[in-house]
Design goal:
Elements: E1 6-20, H1 21-30, H2 40-44, E2 46-61, E3 64-70, H3 84-93, H4 96-115, E4 124-130
Parallel strand pairs: 3-4
Antiparallel strand pairs: 1-2, 2-3
């Protein structure tokens, strides 16, 4: 892969419109994105403001952009601990599905500014988690 086909540590700043965390969690669950159990009081909380973060890696392959998130979670001492079940449990326990949704929104907004178009969905390649 050539150096120009990737962005390392892409910082972003998202403006969040007013909403409730519970509404977002229900939307994610409706789209089959598992979420950890959250305190009901937290789900009722309203949010509004800015969210800052860093996407570990964005790369382009065959005209599509992919987001990569490196994880350093210790899932066990054996290679089998890093198979589907162990990683799926860590994804849910730590709310990584929500993190990837945020990354996808941040990258999409960034890409819209870069190409100055709103129809960028065909450029999305997916999100990957590497433990």
């Amino acid at each position: 892969m050539q150096r120009g086909q990737r962005l390392n540590e892409l910082a972003f700043d998202l403006r969040l419109h007013e909403g409730r965390l519970g509404d977002l969690v229900r939307w994610m669950q409706g789209h089959r994105m598992p979420m950890p159990s959250l305190d009901p009081a937290l789900l009722a909380e309203r949010f509004k403001g800015h969210l800052r973060g860093v996407i570990d890696l964005v790369f382009e392959h065959r005209g599509r952009f992919h987001v990569v998130d490196w994880k350093s979670n210790h899932l066990g001492w054996h290679p089998s601990d890093y198979h589907h079940d162990g990683m799926a449990q860590a994804m849910v326990a730590h709310g990584y599905h929500l993190q990837h949704l945020i990354y996808a929104i941040a990258w999409r907004r960034h890409l819209q500014r870069l190409v100055q178009r709103h129809d960028v969905d065909h450029l999305w390649g997916g999100a990957y988690v590497l433990f």
